[in-house]
């Protein structure tokens, strides 16, 4: 290890060193693993040096970008972790509408750089998410129905391969690698820089409307009817949650289970109110909050619900429809959360996401109209087992209606990455590309987040 430490520009942290404990911890506090060493890479050359060292010494390797992956794939006991946290520079070419982002940046870093120009690209639902992990898993977010997934806006990626070479993957260079990086969920190399297409997005019309739980079946049916033909600028999310102690909600419902309709309109705000009215104006809500605001502000509005260090377990179901039987099963389990912090998120796709060919990238199920995430969440470890079982049971209750597979960025266990995140044909194509670029299997199941 001393040889590696001497070769790196950045520090190599080992157990007992200052900062080791901090850098081995990831966003999910339920993950408690101790790598053999942590290489805090200063640049792409450091990444290359560390990759070649791991290959020569036959060391298992993990890669940490934002550290936000719920399964904790960024850290493994006895491994060499490549920590890209210092590679977080963001460069905006406003005239060309391109942003270049280093592999350790967070989405809030991207928004901070692009929003002064009135520009943005699809960047998830929480601003503390790492750019690398979200991108390699596909990248669903508030702008996806109008501008596509994060991977649909990826123009190129600088990648350190298993032999230490640095290559650029794009539609013109290493096109097979570029296909696999876009939704393949990692294990192909270490991406040290991404280039994304930007779009004109300044203010959005966004907010949430809160309903009593008794209204959930009717609201879900209204959601089911409206979103297949919804205009592309609007993205909705239905959230089973505990009502916050907010002034826009009556005190009698604070802490109770409710259903919130979150929405984001990325077009002309004056058109958005009328276009979204079939859902935002539904029923007799408990209260509402929102209006026109900067996109970056809306991107950060859910951060408070996902604090680092809490204990999480997620799982996900992909659906072709929301029939009445599924709605009944969903409402029953969502109402029985073992911790007030637990949530269930009901998403819709469509728009530009579904308009692209299924084989345009390694992201599977872009044609699915819906997916549902069970967000198991507790502050500490005491309830984690109960929270995990609730999330698994919720997914099991939806199996009669669900497709096989999971959304990569919401899979809560490492084992799910092998068998659950892609269909058989996509898995076979990915394995062929992995054998080409990593014949010795150095990266294995490595994924950066």
N- and C-termini, Cα separation: 24 Å
Largest sheet: 7 strands, antiparallel
Averaged pLDDT: 95
Number of E-type strands: 18
How many DSSP H or I helices?
15
Residue windows where pLDDT falls under 50 for at least 5 positions = none
Q: What is the SS-derived class?
A: alpha+beta
Radius of gyration: 21 Å
Biggest sheet, spatial arrangement of strands: 15-12-14-13-17-18-16
Say what oligomer this is: single chain
* General shape: globular
* Approximate helicity band: 25-40%
Percent of residues in β-strands:
15-25%
Question: How do the strands and helices of this protein lay out in sequence?
Answer:
Blueprint (H helix, E strand, L loop, with lengths): L1 H6 L4 E2 L6 H5 L12 E4 L3 H14 L3 E4 L15 E4 L6 E4 L4 E5 L4 H8 L4 E2 L10 H6 L7 H4 L6 E7 L5 E5 L4 H7 L8 E8 L1 E2 L2 E10 L3 H11 L7 E9 L14 E9 L3 H12 L6 E8 H5 L11 E9 L4 H11 L8 E6 L3 H4 L14 E9 L5 H15 L15 H6 L4 H14 L12
Parallel strand pairs: 2-4, 3-4
Antiparallel strand pairs: 1-2, 5-6, 6-10, 7-11, 8-9, 8-10, 12-14, 12-15, 13-14, 13-17, 16-18, 17-18
């Amino acid at each position: 290890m001393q040889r590696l430490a001497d070769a790196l520009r950045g520090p190599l942290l080992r157990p007992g060193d200052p900062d080791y404990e901090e850098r081995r911890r990831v966003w999910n506090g339920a993950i408690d693993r101790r790598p053999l060493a942590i290489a805090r890479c200063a640049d792409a050359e450091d990444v290359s040096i560390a990759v070649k060292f791991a290959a020569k010494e036959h060391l298992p390797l993990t890669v940490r970008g934002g550290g936000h992956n719920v399964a904790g794939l960024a850290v493994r006991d006895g491994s060499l972790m490549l920590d890209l946290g210092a590679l977080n520079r963001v460069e905006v070419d406003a005239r060309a509408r391109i942003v270049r982002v280093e592999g350790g940046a967070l989405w809030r870093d991207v928004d901070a750089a692009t929003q002064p120009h009135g520009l943005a690209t699809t960047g998830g639902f929480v601003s503390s998410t790492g750019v690398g992990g979200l991108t390699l898993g596909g990248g669903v977010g508030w702008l996806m129905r109008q501008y596509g997934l994060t991977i649909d806006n990826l123009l190129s990626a600088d990648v350190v391969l298993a032999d230490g070479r640095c290559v650029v993957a794009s539609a013109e260079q290493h096109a097979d690698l570029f296909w696999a990086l876009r939704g393949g969920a990692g294990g192909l190399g270490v991406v040290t820089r991404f280039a994304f297409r930007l779009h004109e997005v300044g203010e959005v019309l966004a907010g949430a409307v809160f309903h009593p739980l008794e209204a959930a079946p009717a609201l879900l049916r209204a959601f089911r009817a409206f979103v297949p033909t919804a205009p592309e600028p609007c993205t909705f999310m239905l959230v089973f949650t505990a009502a916050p102690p907010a002034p826009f909600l009556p005190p009698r419902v604070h802490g109770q289970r409710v259903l919130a309709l979150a929405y984001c309109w990325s077009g002309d705000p004056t058109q958005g109110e009328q276009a979204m009215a079939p859902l935002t104006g539904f029923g007799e809500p408990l209260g509402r909050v929102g209006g026109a605001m900067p996109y970056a502000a809306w991107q950060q509005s859910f951060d408070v619900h996902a604090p680092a260090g809490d204990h999480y377990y997620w799982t996900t179901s992909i659906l072709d429809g929301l029939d009445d039987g599924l709605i009944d099963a969903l409402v029953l389990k969502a109402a029985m959360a073992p911790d007030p912090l637990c949530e269930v998120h009901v998403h819709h796709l469509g728009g530009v996401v579904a308009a692209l060919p299924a084989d345009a990238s390694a992201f599977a199920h872009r044609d699915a109209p819906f997916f549902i995430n069970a967000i198991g969440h507790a502050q500490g470890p005491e309830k984690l087992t109960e929270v995990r079982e609730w999330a698994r049971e919720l997914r099991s209750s939806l199996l009669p209606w669900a497709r096989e597979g999971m959304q990569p960025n919401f899979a809560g266990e490492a084992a799910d990455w092998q068998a659950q995140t892609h269909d058989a044909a996509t898995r076979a194509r990915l394995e062929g590309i992995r054998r080409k670029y990593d014949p010795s299997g150095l990266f294995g199941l490595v994924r950066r987040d």
